[in-house]
């Protein structure tokens, strides 16, 4: 399975989602995360610790892709129309993380417009960095007409600790680490069904 995480705006949890989705897919299978973001956030995350899957830079991906059953691609933020067209052509599932603030939603809806113009039906929106249940419900209602994952990703400091330690969120010492991990476990079930 080839899963692509892209967003029209930075700071929406794109790399955090890519890392944790790759971990969910890693299970009993071999998974590769391709870091295509110019910031190389996923590569830096992996270099700081130990992740249960391989992370490579976009420029070296061709050498590695044939050896993996699942591939997760973390794209640069704000892909162009041409980039989106190539992403749609090259993946099984396009995940678009968005936070519940109006600027992120506006940028996401512009991306959705482009995807619909490309007749793309393989994308789904993922609500991320949800500060409260009420906010998540309101945002979900506002985006109800679009393909949206049932599972949202709530806001926890445990994700920052995970990135800093180069590990998954379930491996940090934080009272919310298990709950944060369970959000991605439930998302993984949706992706795999």
Protein described:
With about 190 residues, the chain is of the alpha/beta class. About 45% of the residues lie in helices and about 15% in strands. It has helices at about 15-25, 40-45, 60-65, 80-90, 100-115, 135-140, 160-165, 175-190; strands spanning about 1-5, 30-35, 55, 70-75, 95-100, 125. Strands 3-2-4-1-5-6 form a six-stranded parallel beta sheet, sandwiched between helices.
Q: What are the key terms here?
A:
alpha/beta; 193 residues; 43% helix
State the shape. globular
The largest sheet is: 6 strands, parallel
- Global mean pLDDT: 92
SS-derived structural category = alpha/beta
Helicity, in percent? 40-55%
> pLDDT below 50 for ≥5 consecutive residues: which ranges?
none
Series of secondary-structure elements, N-terminal to C-terminal: EHEHEHEHEHEHHH
Q: How far apart are the termini?
A: 12 Å
- Radius of gyration (Å): 15 Å
Number of helices: 8
Strand content: 15-25%
- In spatial order, strands of the major sheet run 3-2-4-1-5-6
| Strand segment tally | 6
Précis, in short:
With 193 residues, this protein is α/β, with parallel strands linked by helices. Helix content is 43%, strand content 15%.
Chain-wise SSE layout:
Blueprint: E1 2-5, H1 14-26, E2 31-35, H2 41-47, E3 54-57, H3 61-64, E4 70-74, H4 81-89, E5 93-98, H5 102-117, E6 123-127, H6 133-142, H7 158-165, H8 177-192
Parallel strand pairs: 1-4, 1-5, 2-3, 2-4, 5-6
């Amino acid at each position: 399975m080839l899963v692509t995480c892209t967003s029209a705006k930075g700071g929406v949890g794109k790399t955090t989602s890519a890392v944790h989705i790759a971990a969910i897919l890693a299970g009993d299978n071999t998974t590769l995360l391709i870091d295509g973001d110019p910031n190389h956030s996923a590569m830096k995350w992996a270099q700081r610790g130990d992740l249960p899957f391989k992370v490579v830079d976009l420029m070296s991906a061709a050498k590695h892709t044939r050896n993996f059953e699942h591939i997760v691609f973390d794209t640069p933020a704000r892909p162009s129309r041409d980039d989106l067209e190539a992403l749609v052509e090259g993946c099984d599932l396009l995940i678009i993380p968005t936070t519940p603030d109006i600027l992120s939603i506006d940028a996401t809806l512009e991306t959705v417009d482009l995807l619909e113009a490309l007749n793309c039906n393989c994308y789904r929106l993922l609500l991320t960095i949800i500060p409260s249940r009420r906010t998540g419900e309101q945002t979900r209602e506002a985006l109800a007409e679009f393909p949206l994952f049932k599972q949202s990703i709530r806001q926890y400091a445990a994700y920052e600790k995970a990135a800093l330690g180069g590990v998954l969120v379930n491996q940090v010492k934080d009272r919310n680490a298990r709950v944060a991990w369970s959000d991605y476990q439930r998302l993984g079930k949706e992706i795999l069904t």
